[in-house]
UniProtKB/TrEMBL annotation:
<dbReference type="InterPro" id="IPR039375">
    <property type="entry name" value="NodN-like"/>
</dbReference>
<dbReference type="InterPro" id="IPR029069">
    <property type="entry name" value="HotDog_dom_sf"/>
</dbReference>
<dbReference type="InterPro" id="IPR002539">
    <property type="entry name" value="MaoC-like_dom"/>
</dbReference>
<protein>
    <submittedName>
        <fullName>Enoyl-CoA hydratase</fullName>
    </submittedName>
</protein>
<dbReference type="Pfam" id="PF01575">
    <property type="entry name" value="MaoC_dehydratas"/>
</dbReference>
<comment type="similarity">
    <text>Belongs to the enoyl-CoA hydratase/isomerase family.</text>
</comment>
Length: 150
């Protein structure tokens, strides 16, 4: 469910649990497109037949592909009205505790850890966890930094 707030309410979000997104299925087509875009053609990602006999029993998504899903997931969790610019400012910490096999479903949970005023706007630090349906460990644990300007 999307949390919708006005720009001037951003400082009040610290500590807010935004909940979960819907699940998305990671497909071989996505993995191949990511491999083509990044020139990372490692067989554990792009060769399903060989990957069956590999360490994960199936092809896996690139860690950075899984991390990049945070972008579309964000649109499901937070909408800030009255903003002229939104900037993905970066990441403080990222870990990839578990691989995402092709065909897995993933979703994201996010909590606003901190909101600070920056020149011309606000920066929010968000603890983001991308989970694998039925998994025991998350696929991605990251603290994202986002800036909003009125």
């Amino acid at each position: 469910m999307t949390t919708t707030i006005a720009y001037d309410q951003l400082p009040d979000l610290a500590g807010t649990d935004l909940g979960y997104t819907e699940y998305r299925t990671v497909t071989q087509e996505q993995v191949q497109l990511f491999a083509d875009a990044t020139d990372d053609q490692q067989w554990i990602h792009v060769d399903p037949e060989r990957a069956k006999d590999g360490p994960f029993g199936a092809p896996i998504a690139h860690g950075f592909l899984t991390l990049s899903l945070a972008v579309p997931f964000w649109t499901e969790l937070l909408e800030v009205k009255g903003v002229s610019t939104k900037v993905n400012y970066g990441l403080d910490k990222v870990r990839f505790p578990a691989p995402v096999t092709v065909g897995s479903r993933v979703r994201m949970r996010a909590t606003i850890a901190e909101v600070v005023e920056v020149r011309g706007g606000y920066q929010i630090a968000v603890d983001q966890t991308i989970e694998i349906e039925g998994g025991t460990k998350p696929a991605v644990v990251a603290r994202g930094l986002y800036r909003f300007h009125a």
